[in-house]
Amino acid sequence: DKMDFAFFLIQLLNGLQYGLLLFLVASGLTLIFGIMGIINLAHGSFYMLGAYLAWSLAGLTGSLVAAILVAVPLTVLFGMALEWLLIRHFYHRDHLYQVLLTYGLILVFEEARSILWGDDPHGVPVPALLSQSIPLTDTLSYPVYRLFISGVCLLLALGLYLLIQRTRVGMMIRAGASNRDMAQSLGINIKFIYTLVFALGVALAAFAGMINAPLSSVFPNMGGPVLIMCFVVVVIGGIGSVKGALVASLLIGVITSLAVGVDYSLADLLAWFGAGEWAQQVGGLLTLKLSSVAATIPFALMLIVLMVRPSGLMGDKN
Fold first, then answer.
1. pLDDT in the model for residue 3
2. Mind listing the pLDDT tens digit for each residue in 65-78?
3. What separation in angstroms does the CA of 225 have from each of 41, 42, 96, 232?
């Protein structure tokens, strides 16, 4: 009926919004990992940094939009400085050193966050122009701000594609990813390109934290769960593939959201194909409600992809 369809539509839109937001963070991680070869465990901290900057600057300016316009350049400069001071010294080192460095950065960022902003959770108000909701039924509506986030993420995804595939800078980025030494011998300033890529990754993660702050609130250690899910996206989509990150993010977002919203089990779904009686007899995991195991779905997808296609859905087989 109309109510069921409206509820399904809300869950679908929530899944798309979550998937697109996850893509913003994961795309930066997969670029840094795939192009620079850096395992960046501190990537979730940049998401947290963006959220806290949005909260503090919105409090000062009275506007989330103004806060974002100020905070995004700050995060770009922060990313460039961090790459210049620390990250560039670890390109040719073993991944274990990169893991130790970036894990140490997590501890530093968390302590700095505690000193600067404290340990209390905070809320960020939705901009007044985007605070309305679109009615779907007499009792159900959908927030305009969630649609706004989805639209912004789509525009950024398109911009990222055009940057990498259609510009001279993108050509140099791809050349550096394929063969750093050859690209450098052809006159490409690889050090600057790597600084640019790292700053771009930091800015994308921070921007995701900024626009999601009104929905998720701002709280300590908020980057941890995001980082874990981003690595799942990178594995499913393929290391270094922005397109793969988009597909994997949307897949995780939509499937997880629908699983949370529906009151079905695997046995109920198998019943649609005539195997419901068999599923009920087997019992066990088949009779568990999908909503109760929704949090494990991304990891199950990752396991399946690793078994079937270890390079990821759109990763390089070689």
1. 67
2. 999 999 999 999 99
3. 12, 12, 22, 11
What is the Cα 54 distance to its own chain's centre? 17
Which one, of 131, 113, 112, lies nearest residue 51 by Cα?
A: 113
Token pair for residue 212? Answer: 């999601």
First-to-last C-alpha distance (Å) of the chain: 49
CA distances from 244 to 23, 155, 241 (A): 10, 17, 5
Q: What is the pLDDT of residues 253-296, one digit of tens each?
A: 998 888 877 666 666 666 656 665 655 655 555 566 666 777 88
Decide if 25 contacts 202 (C-beta within 8 A): no
Cα distance between residue 24 and residue 253, in whole Å: 13
CA 150 – CA 57 distance, rounded (Å) = 23
Q: Could you tell me how far CA 202 lies from the centroid of its own chain?
A: 12
Q: Is 271 helix (H, G, I), strand (E, B) or coil?
A: helix
CA–CA dist 137, 9 (Å, integer): 11
Residue 208, C-beta contacts closer than 8 angstroms, at least 6 positions apart: 21, 24, 25, 47, 50
Contacting residues for 300 by C-beta, under 8 A, at least 6 apart: none
Contact (CB, 8 A) for 233 and 245 = yes
Contact 79, 199 (CB under 8 A): yes
Q: Residue 53: how many CB atoms within 10 A of its CB?
A: 24
Whole-model pTM: value is: 0.91
What gap in Å lies between CA 239 and CA 8, rounded to an integer? 32
Rounded-to-integer distance, Cα 105 and Cα 103, Å: 5
Distance (Å, rounded) from C-alpha 20 to C-alpha 33? 20
